[in-house]
Specification:
Elements (H helix, E strand, L loop, with lengths): L9 E3 H8 L3 H9 L6 E2 L5 E4 H6 L6 H14 L1
Antiparallel strand pairs: 1-3, 2-3
Helix pairs in contact: 1-2
């Protein structure tokens, strides 16, 4: 089972950061700015959903956005 098969799996900040190639500080900043929902299991244990982390990353230009829209239209 690959990571894409488990989009709602909870990950530690370190694991989520490693998976996306960013630092845990990037994710902490996104949590502080309310751009990334986070869940506290204990005082020190913070988890994020894989799908929520993926949603932080969006295409930066019109060509990429158009390609994604065309792909979504083809699969619908």
């Amino acid at each position: 089972m690959s990571a894409s098969d488990r989009p709602d799996e909870f990950l530690s900040l370190a694991a989520a950061a490693a998976e996306r190639g960013v630092t845990h500080w990037f994710l902490r900043d996104a949590i502080a700015e309310n751009r990334l929902p986070a869940y506290r299991a204990s005082r020190k244990c913070i988890r994020v959903r894989r799908s929520d982390v993926a949603a932080l990353f969006v295409p930066m230009n019109d060509a990429a956005r158009d390609a994604l829209a065309a792909e979504a239209g083809a699969s619908a």
